[in-house]
Amino acid sequence: RQEAAEEDSAMAEDPMITDKELADLKEQLDRMPHDKDRLRLVCTAADSFRFTCEQLKGLVEVQHYGDALRTTAINIHPKLVDPDNFDMVLACYKYEEDREEIREALGL
């Protein structure tokens, strides 16, 4: 319980990502050829900011495929300010298997 309360309070202190920061993040992701580098960048962003589902959808659309594509949604989901809109993010995944894997990882 203590840890959950600390996590909630830490998240409340994280700022929303700005349009400029989001554009910079997308540009950096677009330039990175390796999934592991992309994932590291997404994790750093998830540690620093809160996001809307629309913003997360934009990040997912920049990822190429595979783990980076799925992990982007999984890692940022806890930092969403509007998790009720998460279906819009899932809808941008081409394959049902990806959507199922994300739902299972998040317990949805």
The H/E string reads: HHHHHHH
- The overall strand count is 0
Largest sheet: none
Total helices: the number is 7
Rounded to the nearest angstrom, the radius of gyration is: 13 Å
- Note poorly predicted spans: 1-10
The percent range for helix content is over 70%
Gross morphology is globular
Which whole number gives the mean pLDDT? Answer: 87
Structural class: mainly alpha
Cα distance spanning the termini: 21 Å
Q: Strand-residue fraction?
A: under 5%
Your description of this structure?
The longest helix has 14 residues, at 35-48. Helix content is 70%, strand content 0%. The chain has helices at residues 2-13, 19-31, 35-48, 53-62, 66-76, 86-90, 96-106. It is built from seven helices and no strands.
How is the secondary structure organized here?
Layout: H1 2-13, H2 19-31, H3 35-48, H4 53-62, H5 66-76, H6 86-90, H7 96-106
Features:
108 residues; mainly alpha; single chain; 0% strand; disordered N terminus
Short recap of the structure:
By secondary structure, the chain is mainly α. It has helices at residues 2-13, 19-31, 35-48, 53-62, 66-76, 86-90, 96-106. The two termini are 21 Å apart.
